[in-house]
Amino acid sequence: MPLRPLSILTALLHVYIALRLLPALFALTPAGALLLLAMLVVSAATIPLPFVRMRTERPPLPDAWRWIGLISMGWFSSMFVLTLARDAGLALTWGAQWAAGVQVDWPGTQRWSAVAVALLATLVTTIGFFNARRTARVQTVEVPIAGLPPALIGFTIAQLSDIHVGPTIRRGYIERIVDAVNRLEADAIAITGDLVDGSVAELRDHIAPLADLRARHGTFVVTGNHEYYAGAHAWIDELRRLGLTVLLNEHVLLAARRAKGAQTDEEVGAMTLLLAGVTDYTAVHFDAAHASDPQAALAGAPEAVTTRVLLAHQPRSAPAALEAGFQLQISGHTHGGQFFPWNLFVPLQQPFTAGLNRLEGMWVYTSRGTGYWGPPKRFGAPSEITLLRLVAR
């Protein structure tokens, strides 16, 4: 949506909140009502600011204004949802009063429910801010693979996803993540897309610490939809310059241990994990040559290597991955919903929201994300650094 219509729409929604809450608040606490009015004005005025740089040719805004706009976006989201919920609750209360003759202190109910909306939205936004800004905790997940060769039992993949380096996620945030991942001493590191929200020129210095990631087999990256918004080809070149391996519908073979002496193809295959990566599910809309293709990612793969893991940004790549013969798909994209109630809407687009799930004979792990998008706010969907450990089933 263009910036001006977006600004008008959000302003009108702020007017709706004001009309529904302020009269009741004025009757209870004029000072509180004036404070809420001021907060709504600031919110309506600043929410468009983070998008000015992306959608117009105006000079960049100071980061402080972008911070205020993004925090306002998170607060407004909760205010809007809770105001809708309050109106639904008042309607049900009115209906019960009319149908059953129940006596309700109607003015008192309106006043205190208005206070509850404002306080709860502010509390959730405050908690969500601290949840989003802390370094993601490590989530260890065991993935049982049928017929997993003994040499691959315990093989670990540290997953980062949806960091969204941009207006509020900068170099220091990335350095903390890199330190946490390196302490895991994983066999491989996977970054499953949506790493950036901005151009290489703007964010090069902020993603530079990713060059310090350490794992026995290295770090592997697949593109997410936000890489294509930000200029995927330039970012692919930059990530490769940093020493990361970008997998574009292709695979690598990772040896669980060094082979000793002459071995058959079957013996080598039993000691090898195939790690493949596909471009984002929607990449074809930006570049026809980047159409996501799990089958193409297996081109030239040795038949003896039967343990096959796919990195795919979106969970909805899973049916094609299953058909191609992968045993595990590692994804992100959903953020686990990031904060209520958006987690309720993720299933409308994706088959899985978060965690380890089964699609027929294949596992799909969906990360809640290591950073966040937009508002610095996480509530009910904690960020994570995931350590996936393969175990026999």
> What sort of overall outline do the alpha carbons produce when their principal axes are compared?
elongated
Task: Kindly name the structural category.
Answer: alpha/beta
Continuous helix count: 11
Query: What is the terminal-to-terminal distance?
Result: 48 Å
Overall CATH class of the largest domain: Alpha Beta
The string of secondary-structure elements, in order, is HHHHHEEHEHEHHEEHEEHEEEE
Major beta-sheet overview? 6 strands, mixed
Number of separate strands: 12
Percent helix: 40-55%
Low-pLDDT stretches are 55-59
Set down the secondary structure blueprint:
Blueprint: H1 3-28, H2 30-46, H3 49-55, H4 63-100, H5 106-133, E1 137-145, E2 156-160, H6 171-182, E3 188-192, H7 200-207, E4 219-222, H8 225-230, H9 232-241, E5 245-246, E6 250-255, H10 265-270, E7 272-277, E8 307-311, H11 318-324, E9 328-331, E10 355-359, E11 362-366, E12 384-392
Parallel strand pairs: 1-12, 2-3, 3-4, 4-5, 7-8, 8-9, 9-11
Antiparallel strand pairs: 2-12, 6-7, 10-11
Helix pairs in contact: 1-2, 1-4, 1-5, 2-4, 4-5
